[in-house]
Amino acid sequence: MKKAIFVLAAMLVIGTGATVLANPDTLSSDKEGKQLTEKFQQLTRDNGWEQKEEIDLKFNTYHPQGLTKVGDLYYMSSVEIIEKPVKYDKPKDGYDRTTGKGVGHLFLFNKEGKLLKDIKLGEGDMYHPGGIAFDGTSIWVSVAEYRPNSKSIIYKVNPETMESQEVFRTNDHIGGILRDRKKGTLKAISWGSRSFYEFNEKGKILRKSSNPSHFIDYQDCENAGKNHMVCSGITELPQPAPSTAKYELGGLALLDMKTMDMVHELPISLFSPKGHVVTRNPVFLENTTQGIKLYAVPDDDQSSMLIYETNISKK
Questions:
Q1: Rg (CA), the chain
Q2: SS3 annotation, 98-163
Q3: DSSP classification of residue 39
Q4: Which ranges in 5-112 belong to alpha helices (H)?
Q5: 231-256 pLDDT, tens digit each
């Protein structure tokens, strides 16, 4: 589902030739976050998004899930599906489908689309990473079973070393997670984002609430300045008979992190060369001088990262 990271720290060159941030604790800018939030609330369906770049990713991306940016490097979670889950005729043991089999990945790549590192995350039936987010120090990743009402492992990953640390486990499918830098708690979404969670870093549920919006299912979310988060996602709508194809309705939403109420949302009608709405998979938003930049990887397997910009002053 889903984003704003604003880079103020000095840069450091490491052995791979990649660039990372020397001081990740000073990444967040309240001023930049405030600007992004204010601009987002001015977005309407009339805003034009101009494609600026299409970067071919030079590796198998499988089924991308979450995207975040640190300096000039990109981090993307993805699920490699080996055996697709199969729905039961009727629920068994509280589940609506089999577990399937797969591998969870967190990729690190550069602005040329070159893969710099690939780490595996997950365990057993928990192989499906969700939306990811960077909190200024760590990248947070949830890895769940590929079915609703299941189980998840929550990890944090050092963006410089790509070393992962299991933080806690919880009894639901967590489809995306981010850390509230002000409170130190973790905000999370369930399968289809029908439920919102707030955890402490020991995994205790501090709050659970229902998502009042049914416009889209959030896929990827990230911090967007003081007390706000931006989520992206889709919903699949049926088309008139005899067509059996689904229309992918894409969208973005700004949420109040204190209440998890929707502040502003809008549809996105940009499509990839393969016909997928750009908010189908991971999305990352960035503040620019004139407006907002959107990064997206909507297609599976042999993917491209599509980069768009919109000018808030020109609609």
A1: 18
A2: CCCEEEEEEEEECCCCCEEEEEEECECCEEEEEEEEECCCCEEEEEEECCCCCCEEEEEECCCCCC
A3: H
A4: 30-40
A5: 999 999 999 999 999 999 999 999 99
Stretch 79-84: mean pLDDT = 98
- Mind listing the pLDDT tens digit for each residue in 211-236? 999 999 999 999 998 799 999 999 99
Nearest Cα neighbor of 147 from 131, 128, 164 is 128
Q: How far is it, in rounded angstroms, from Cα 260 to Cα 198? A: 10
CA 250/CA 115 separation, integer angstroms: 28
Class of domain 11-311: mainly beta
Spans of all domains in the chain: 11-311
Which whole-number Å values give the CA distances from 27 to 21, 38, 274, 287, in the listed order?
A: 9, 20, 35, 14
DSSP string computed for 213-276: --S-EEEEEEE-STTEEEEEEEEEEE-STT---EEEEEEEEEEETTT--EEEEEEE--B-TTS-
CA distance 200 to 295: 30
Joined together, the tokens standing for residue 62 give 């499988």
The encoded tokens of residue 45 equal: 């369906």
Tokens 């089924």 found at: 63
- pLDDT digits over 155-165, tens only? 999 999 999 99
Q: Which two tokens stand for residue 24?
A: 């990740």
Please count the other Cβ atoms lying within 10 Å of the Cβ belonging to residue 201.
Answer: 13
* Residues pairing with 311 in the sheet: 291
* CB 275 within 8 Å of CB 124: no
